[in-house]
Amino acid sequence: MDYRMIPVGDQAVAIEMGTTIDPAVNQRLQTIGQAVLAAHLPMVKTVIPGYATLTVTFNGQMATTEMVMKKLTPLIDAAMQAKLAPHQTWLIPVCYGGEFGPDLADVAAFAKCSAEEVIAKHTSRDYLIYFMGFLPGFAYMGSVVDEIAMPRLAEPRLEIPAGSVGIAGAQTGFYPVASPGGWRIIGQTPLKLYDPAHPESFYHAGDLIRFQAVSAAEFATIKQAVAAGTYQPKGVA
Length: 237
Hints:
Shape: elongated
Strand order of the largest sheet: 5-12-9-10-7-6-13
Helix content: 25-40%
Low-confidence stretches: none
Largest sheet: 7 strands, mixed, barrel
Oligomer: single chain
Distance between the termini: 29 Å
Mean pLDDT: 94
Strand content: 25-35%
Number of helices: 5
């Protein structure tokens, strides 16, 4: 893989690896990001991953762009040869269809299959979290199988319930808080994905998400346990 570094204003540098959505590229950038943070460079503030970019922000009073690029180059070159950063796989229960997934029937019609087949396709693979954004705890994940990669709604909804699971083209994701949105909502998770009192999500960019279909009764049971503080998100070994 090749990369290039370009200035982003006077206090950030972007590491770019092409323009396509490729899990191998993103995972390599995640590895580079971990290496940059592990180096504890005094001028570096944080790293911000994208699909095919990694932006490194820094204190412009401590270093120039050229100085930062010089410091980053050996770290990037070493990380390009290192093992990929380890990841965690999280199991996310989802109740599909009905009141929880108002767009499931439309996705099924788009895919020319049954609702049950859409659910089977959506739960058939693990999804890489490429990056976080849009809302606190919102994870951009991909990619769904081509048959169910339905485009966004022409007119976004004014409010989508927290926990809603949707599809937008090849992407899938869940809404951590209630918000407007144009994704095709096919289900909902009973998990609490964002808590203002503890704003850091249990999942992070570079992790994998595995959706598991549950019944309405199971949804209610899990939601009750979440509210009582007795349910912990499950990682997959």
